[in-house]
Design brief:
Elements (H helix, E strand, L loop, with lengths): L3 H9 L5 E5 L25 H14 L3 E5 L9 H10 L3 E5 L8 H10 L4 E4 L6 H7 L6 H15 L7 E7 L5 H15 L2 E6 L10 H5 L5 H14 L12 H5 L1 E4 L5 E2 L18 H12 L12 H4 L11 H6 L21
Parallel strand pairs: 1-2, 1-7, 2-3, 3-4, 4-5, 5-6
Antiparallel strand pairs: 7-8
Length: 345
């Protein structure tokens, strides 16, 4: 799924391997912990022209993979035209879907073809029906069966299990045991791996800070999940990022409102960094150091707690969790269970 050689080349040359591209903000899954406040109706959406131009610029920048994001990217009318053009340019297409649209066979079939050289990631953070409905207000636990139906159909038509990924969010409403049960279910029944993202603290409309605190999982629970991941992956190295620091550094994002950031979960709107007023190539040329976390690529630039960590060759903590907690993009990761640090949020 990852061209490791190209990834390391991009990282070592301060370049870019992947582009996270948000093509809209509409999503019906209504995850209460959503980092980008996905909506039931469109508020921000890149135009077709802007998306094609971004892809052209990405080719010149040297991007290898396009991470298709929303909202729910599969709700965008022209999504498969975008993927076809992306594939024509030689990109790897990585689809990040909530999973509900995959239950439509034609959608799943087109995804399988157009993401044949990449991956399809879906989102099912719990199999517990009661917890699912708590985490997805206005939805029912029937979503679980709907998502599983789509996953099973992809497997039936020959899409490889190793190119499928369950991208989950671990919150304070789940126990470590529930998260581990979800990981085990997909591995044992389908041969599908799970990517664990520990909750980011974002102030969502209509939610107070005290309400958001309930989504923060206890450090000991996070530790249990990561110890399990290390066990099943037969390694002592599991970065606290959703990816290793090489992938994180070599990735940039274009948000659905046009702003360019180092990561889609860093919702920062910096002056002069919007593709509506400058091309992606121009923004990258001007802001490369910011977009690649240049400061953190040296030992001196790491947070103090990371400098002596045995994982620091592959991990510098989650930059967007630090940003969301008000610690800046270079701050310590407040969800890292390995440091004696807990955010007051």
């Amino acid at each position: 799924m990852i061209d490791t050689e190209k990834l390391l080349e991009a990282y070592n040359k301060d370049g870019f391997y992947a582009l996270q591209l948000e093509i809209g903000d509409v999503c019906y899954q209504n995850c209460s912990y959503c980092y980008m406040n996905a909506l039931f109706e469109t508020k921000n959406q890149l135009s077709d022209y802007e998306i094609f131009k971004i892809l052209d610029d990405s080719k010149e920048i040297g991007i290898t993979a396009i991470e298709w994001l929303g909202g729910e990217p599969l709700l965008r009318d022209q999504v498969f035209e975008f993927l076809k053009y992306s594939q024509k340019l030689g990109f790897r297409n990585n689809m990040w879907t909530g999973g509900l649209p995959l239950a439509e066979e034609k959608v799943a079939e087109q995804c399988a073809v157009l993401c044949s050289n990449g991956l399809i990631a879906f989102h099912l953070s719990t199999l517990n029906k009661e917890i699912y409905e708590i985490l997805h207000p206005q939805r029912t636990a029937e979503d679980i069966d709907t998502i599983l139906k789509g996953v099973e159909y992809l497997l039936e038509i020959g899409y490889p299990s190793e190119k499928l990924l369950n991208s989950v969010t671990f919150t304070g409403y789940q126990t470590a045991e529930d998260m581990i049960a979800t990981i085990e279910f997909f591995q044992k029944n389908y041969g599908i791996a799970t990517c664990v993202n520990v909750y980011h603290t974002y102030l969502r409309p209509g939610q107070s800070l005290s309400e958001l605190n309930k989504f923060i999982p206890p450090s000991k629970e996070v530790e249990k999940v990561y110890k399990y991941l290390k066990k099943i992956n037969n390694t002592d190295i599991i970065p606290m990022n959703c990816v290793n620091k090489q992938y994180c550094s070599a990735t940039l994002a274009v948000l659905n409102n046009g702003f360019v950031t180092p990561c889609a979960t860093i919702r920062e709107e910096r002056e002069g960094m919007n593709i509506k007023f400058a091309s992606l190539k121009e923004i990258v040329a001007k802001e490369r150091d910011y977009l690649i976390f240049k400061e953190m690529k040296s030992w001196d630039g790491l947070p103090e707690s990371c400098k002596e960590c045995y994982q620091n060759e592959f991990c510098f903590g989650c930059r967007s969790r630090a940003y969301a907690a008000g610690l800046g993009i270079y701050g310590e990761d407040p969800r890292c269970y390995q440091i004696n640090y807990r955010s007051s949020l």
